[in-house]
Known about the structure:
Strand order of the largest sheet: 8-7-6-5-11-12
Helix content: 25-40%
Distance between the termini: 44 Å
Mean pLDDT: 89
Radius of gyration: 20 Å
Strand content: 15-25%
Largest sheet: 6 strands, antiparallel
Number of strands: 12
Order of helices and strands: HHEHHHHEEHHEEEHEEEEHHEEH
Amino acid sequence: MWFEELGQGDVKRGGAKCANLGELDRIGMPVPPGFVVTTEAYDSFLKQTNGGTEINECLNMLARKPKGITEYEELSQRLWQIIIEKEIPNEIQHSISQAYAALGRKCEVLDVPVAVRSSGVAEDLPTAAFAGQYESFLGVKGKRNLLNKVKECWASLFTARAISYRMQNKLPILAGLMGVIVQRTINARSAGVAFTMLPSTGDASWIMIEANWGTAESVVQGIVAPDRYYINKETLEIEEKNVAKKLKQISLTKAGTMEEKIPLHKQSAPCVLDEELAKIAEMARQVEQHYGSPQDIEWVIEQDMPFPKNIFLVQTRPLSAVQKKSPVDKAADLICSRFLGLK
């Protein structure tokens, strides 16, 4: 299904992340074009290949709950192999291949590079904590590579972290369905996240934007101390800039992504222009108003396009609780709070 066919109410069909992308598209936000391999496809894959039965048989052989990361990793590897070693049924392969070809025609690029992203049914919901546990891949090219990455996204339902989370919360290990997003990869100059309330204090009168050169993975995964900007939500004025010394970035390559050093002349330079910050903040405010609750929004700036067409939103999810931060982050926020007079 294409993003424009989906909305906020379609979590069971495409997963939470995809439902939110469809909703963003519906309200006119700039979302890179793409489609979702639906949860029905994953369910059909398990049934037609007998993978679901094999997973249950493997789980039924467990004499006790795994102890320690090593045992969780061993169980994860067994379940992962069940998925990876199966061949995707022909009709599902055909549907994915046809949609990928259509996306290439829409983007006017043969074998268009795509982001292949897991979209769990329980992910990015206010009552769940699955976000970040599943796989995502950038810069995937070609039908065969795409099909392989779809399987890897399905298999990521059984990472050691996801299995441990389910067991600790007394959820069935086989619970949950997985949609897979296939979306044109943005050639990122800069990327990051926008919070429509301060994560450390819960103050909803400010928008905080974190950014780095390259893709957003370096920010989301905590690889760098990012640039941090505080914007008045009402006026959209930039009240404070904290430009960090950024040593690493995640960059797109022909083979996917790689971590690399940031050139010296860019390390201490702001990676987002003031006009871009104001536009991101304006979009973030609109998204929050639409959902009626604070949001955690992932954005990316395309380096080959002019402003304002170069800014895209690639994810939003509820920001429903004050997040735990490191002592360094708390200290930085405290300094800015005193400077800005924040709560």
